[in-house]
Design goal:
CATH class of the largest domain: Alpha Beta
Number of domains: 2
Helix content: 25-40%
Strand order of the largest sheet: 3-2-1-4-5-6
Shape: globular
EC number: 2.4.99.24
Enzyme class: transferase
Strand content: 15-25%
Largest sheet: 6 strands, parallel
CATH architecture of the largest domain: 3-Layer(aba) Sandwich
Oligomer: single chain
Radius of gyration: 21 Å
Distance between the termini: 49 Å
Structural class: alpha/beta
Keywords: Glycosyltransferase, Transferase
Family: Belongs to the glycosyltransferase 9 family.
CATH superfamily of the largest domain: Glycogen Phosphorylase B
GO molecular function, one term: ADP-heptose-lipopolysaccharide heptosyltransferase activity
Length: about 325
């Protein structure tokens, strides 16, 4: 059982944006159960913006490039040691998470018994038998339940400042309303990406049907996908008040703010999908190689529409299609 007298808790967060959003209910449950405890979150810098302004977290500790290798991990462990944490809860699954907290001398180290790290944990929790059939949010909540912390489901929510909302609203002022957000990328692999010409068709239909506009989002590595969509949109809808590409032009916090200002969002199964439901933007989520019951909009996804193929090979969880050259599940 977790020692509730602990007043200085470290949580090792996860490494991906979408996974980060799915840990938010667990962090809220921790705050509710431990109102007088300082909760510090150790996460990679590219994920930390997900947790900014979150009242359930007191401190964000970056786990950056300077902490690579044994020397870097030792340096990080010393930083953690000096903070005198009494317990560490490891939401991240890797051996590394247990190793660093062990090196830091944190007395109580709690996490799932997996990835060969059980001997480094003081409380080793069995991996739930339903981990491949229950939504990922419940994987994190179950860890807390198993150590005696009541962890009821709450809808993930991202906190934005009024200045962030107003900045995004101002940037979109020149676009016709309503605004459709498009996220055509997926870092995991091509098997999760719908085709650019299909996204272009959605843009054409939306602008024609509503008189509104579309914004295309993406990382710096996905600008070519965004450019291809823009080229396939019919010429009359490429006007500055109808079509805007922000691919490669936003920080993560800016992306969250822009998605919050969209009236509807169409996305592959990727990090921005989770950002959208966590800011309550209605969305259509396209699944092919992955399973929406595991990583889709949670608990029925109020305001969400899930699109998935009825094919025997889906979900396959592959990064690239192993059967065809054209991703049959995404056609």
């Amino acid at each position: 059982m977790f020692d509730t007298s602990c007043k200085n808790l470290l949580v090792r967060g996860v490494n991906w944006i979408g996974d980060g959003v799915m840990t938010l209910p667990a962090l809220k449950a921790l705050r509710k159960a431990l109102p007088g405890t300082k909760i510090s979150l150790l996460v990679k810098p590219w994920v930390s913006p997900v947790f900014e302004k979150n009242p359930d977290i007191d401190e964000i500790i970056p786990y950056g490039d300077t902490h690579k290798g044994l020397i870097g991990k030792t340096r990080l462990a010393w930083v953690l040691h000096k903070k005198n944490f009494c317990s560490a809860i490891l939401l991240q699954n890797a051996f590394d998470a247990a190793f660093v907290t062990f090196l830091a001398g944190i007395k109580n180290r709690i996490g799932y018994n997996r990835d060969g790290r059980g001997f480094l944990l003081t409380t080793s929790v069995p991996v739930p038998k339903n981990k491949d059939s229950a939504h990922q949010i419940y994987y994190y909540l179950n860890l807390l339940d198993q150590i005696g912390i009541h962890a009821a489901y709450t809808a993930p929510y991202l906190y934005l400042g009024i200045d962030e909302r107003l900045s995004a609203r101002t940037a979109l002022n020149g676009l016709k309303r309503p605004v459709l957000g498009i996220n055509p990328g997926a870092t995991y692999g091509s098997a999760k990406r719908w085709f650019p010409d299909r996204f272009a068709e959605i843009v054409d239909w939306f602008i024609s049907d509503t008189g509104g506009s579309a914004v295309i989002f993406g990382s710096a590595s996905e600008t070519s996908i965004a450019d291809e969509i823009c080229k396939k949109v019919i010429p009359e809808f490429r006007a500055p008040d109808s079509l805007l590409s922000l691919a490669g032009r936003t920080s993560l916090r800016e992306l969250v703010s822009f998605i919050a200002e969209c009236d509807v969002f169409v996305t592959n199964d990727s990090g921005p999908l989770h950002l959208a439901y966590a800011v309550r933007t209605p969305l259509a989520a396209i699944f092919g190689s992955t399973d929406p019951s595991l990583t889709g909009p949670p608990d029925g996804g109020d305001g969400s529409v899930i699109i998935q193929p009825d094919l025997p090979c889906s979900p396959c969880f592959e990064r690239t299609c192993k059967i065809t050259t054209y991703n049959a599940c995404m056609r």
